[in-house]
Amino acid sequence: MAKKETQIKNLIPLSDELIERRIYLIRGHKAMLDSDLAELYQVETKALNRAMKRNADRFPDEFMFHLTPDEAESLRYQIGTSNAARGGRRYGPYAFTEHGVAMLSSVLRSKRAVLMSILIVNGFVRLRGILATHRDLAQAIEDLRRKQAEQGEQITAIIETINQLLLPESVPPKRQIGFTADKDDGEAGGDQ
Fold this sequence. Notes:
The protein is of the alpha+beta class. The chain has a domain at 15-134: Mlu1-box Binding Protein, DNA-binding Domain (Roll). It has 7 helices and 4 strands. Helix 3 crosses helix 4 (45-54). The longest helix has 56 residues, at 111-166.
């Protein structure tokens, strides 16, 4: 196994990050564009697509799909691919899922294609692990947010109760009973 890994590293001096950056989320699938794959396999895009079309029975819809003009335009803005008006592609790109990438190595029939497919599939696997970790982290953050909101409501209720206990009750002042000498209203013992 070590010999195969050495062959891969020597033949293809690519970083894992470079491959992972070329994996896009399209129609809910993690996929790579035909032009990116052609560059990695060091073949022309039209040669890659020709090999795929000659072996169309190996590429069902869940392995590969043709992008709509809107999807292609959206990706062009996101990743900066060339415009057809400026000498770019004449046909919309194909997107290959992880299984489609694995199948490409069998139809291209080159040592580089086989070794590159191994690297790319490993990139898909790493990306899947990263996404699972992020999903778990996002769920944990949401649980903490929900718990914090519940505790915030409980703390607010406690503070309101304490404030009610600390405030003096609004009881009308008690009326004094008895006679006061300092009243000068004419009621205190005099002849009038």
